[in-house]
Amino acid sequence: MISIISWMPCLTLYINMNYPCIINLPKIPDKRGNLSFFENVNQIPFKIKRTYWIYDVPGGEFRGGHAYKENQEFIVALSGSFDIVLDDGNEKKTFSLNRSYYGLYVPRMYWREMNNFSTNSLALIVSNTEYNEDDYIRDYSEFCLLRKKV
Ligand code: TYD
Q1: Non-local CB neighbours of 15 within 8 Å, separated by 6+ positions
Q2: Looking at residue 123, which CATH number applies to its domain?
Q3: Which one from 27, 50, 63, 66 is the annotated catalytic residue?
């Protein structure tokens, strides 16, 4: 599935919703402090239903260790830095987030782990579904089996 995203005026970005990708966000520089934003479907390829954030992560801890059957996410490091490891059942890729003017689009059906959190890091996550424990795949071998059918 291909989604067309308008990123900046007169600039259109094509996102393949089957693959993770870094999305650059608008940045309004200002001597009083910079401002960035994203809006439903203008910068990210889905309509936001949920927002949550991860903070106060103790050194060495990791989050995630699951995949979603339907849920898609967009993750921004609002403060500090952390890594997101995405696994499609064959290959793992690590994305390092450390600026608040870009984020990672995570399609459905990727095994996801977040680690390497810096002190005081803040991860903002928006998703296209409301929280639903039934949408989680928390067993890696089950994920690998289901991933083959995607
Ligand atoms: P989980 O998604 O497993 O966290 P992570 O992927 O960051 O390790 O969620 C941890 C707990 O928080 C789990 O008990 C479910 C609950 N939770 C909600 O109630 N609502 C939400 O939107 C999220 C993301 C989690």
Answers
A1: 2, 3, 4, 5, 21, 23, 45, 105
A2: 2.60.120.10
A3: 66
